[in-house]
Amino acid sequence: MLVLILGVGFTLVAILLRAELMRQYEERALGVARSVAADDVIVRDVAAHERTPEVQRRAEAVRRRTGVLFVVVADDHGIRYSHPDPDRIGQRVSTEPEALSGAEVVTFERGTLGLSARGKVPLLTPDGKVAGQVSVGIAADQVSRRVTGLLRGAAGFAGIAVVLGVAASVLLARRLKHQTLGLEPADLADLLREREAVLHGIDEGVLAVDPAGRVTIWNDAAARLIGCLPAPGTPIDDAGLPPGLRTLLIERRAVRGVLVATEDRMLVVTAGPVRRGDHDLGHVVTLRDRTDLDEMARELDVVRALSDALRAQAHEYTNRLHTLSGLLSLGHRGEAEAYLRELADDPLATEYSDGGRVRDPYVRGLLAAKTAVASEQGVDLRLSADSFLPGQLRFPLDVVTIVGNLIDNAVAAARAGARRPAWVELSLVAEADILHLVVVDSGDGVPAAAVDRLFDQDFTTSADDARPHGVGLALARRLTRRRGGDLTLTRAAGADCGAVFVARLPGSIEPSPATREAHLSAAVPGGAS
User: Fold this and answer.
1) Where in the chain is the domain with CATH 3.30.450.20?
2) What is the pLDDT of residue 486?
3) How far apart are CA 173 and CA 190, in angstroms?
4) Which of 113-127, 137-151, 349-363, 443-457 is predicted least confidently?
5) What are residue 383's DSSP bridge partners?
6) Which of 109, 112, 246, 355 could connect to 241 by a Cys-Cys bridge, CB 3.0–4.6 Å?
7) Using CA atoms, how far apart are residues 252 and 211, in angstroms rounded to an integer?
8) What dotted CATH number matches 2-146?
9) What is the DSSP letter of 231?
10) Which of 447, 459, 455, 448 is nearest to 416 (CA)?
11) Model confidence, pTM
12) Residue 257 phi, psi (nearest 5)
């Protein structure tokens, strides 16, 4: 194919070059003819029809000086006054004397001296009459020799260019082969189609950077989870990535299941290097939304907590039934009746009761479970007297996560604190569709040095290494902010209590016909615990 292209191109160049040279030689012949026609001696002798040797001498002098094939001067009848072959002087010209009409003519035709490029100019007397013509010819083989010489030079340059082009093509092919890891164009096309299908066909976010630390690949899920859409080739530092994710990519660490916080999400990150043979292709990160994954986990946590509460209550009931059975079997009927009355008046310590102030089943289930678990740990979890939640939650799973994490942290703080008895008080207050949440514990409070970092991911004040820490408060704050609210530490420590956390969740409560006044008028004084 390359040879064919070169052959066709070279042929076109030869044709165009020959045509251009023919035009130039015709113009040259015409210029020589004009100079001869301007000779006053030649004009005078031809106009007088005097066939003098001077015309032949002057014409031949011009021919030898310019190197043309011939310079022929003829009168108005076409009779030659000069010719390279003196024997032809006095004869009629072999071609049509077109210039006798008074116009200049350029032609390429054959005469007595062969094929030539010709220029013909009329001989004009001072009064403007046509006295004859001057015909100048340049041999066609001279044109051919010139074309051949130019083509040889062009062929030499073309040959050098072809050799250089082939060498450059080989080097370029090797470089491309190296850069494409030996893949052919069809393989690259298939790989691109597969990559697009995989990237946009999964729910997990995928983000990749090259060895130079520039973002090269991401999918729609990654842009949604991260909250930004970097342009191709953007450096990691300028891509607007969350700090934790940016650190992982800069350090190029291989991690699995690491939590990274964004403005409103908690992401599970898996990262690792990508290699093909000995080639380093960069780093790839997959992102999963923990807040989405936790939706089912939250329900499972509530069910598990309820199960633990039922187990604790069943154990307590079994003990009390055994006691009652023993009294009856020993015949202590009076003591048994008194014991039954005591049980009727004193519900189980682990039993949760809110006096009907909390209507949402998710929150009720969570509080029942957390109360039982806290009781097993020696912590009294109680609901404040002013708590009132008459409506249903619009996004119960988020609220359950926020409340559950705050209670877990408060129970752990109360258990580790010096105050006894250990307690945690929870306040849930509905104001229109806004839920106000306050959690107070009896712990030792938050150290002053830890206040600024309390809501940072992976930061904890707990000394217990048996379970993961540094996630609950960070997740709770992000969930509240994602819902348009906020979670703050209003008191790090006090004289009569430990830390005080306050959360505000707008738009979290469905409208309810119940009113706070109606509830308070019917509520039992003192609340429930």
Assistant:
1) 2-146, 190-291
2) 92
3) 20
4) 349-363
5) 426
6) 246
7) 9
8) 3.30.450.20
9) P
10) 447
11) 0.47
12) 70, 25
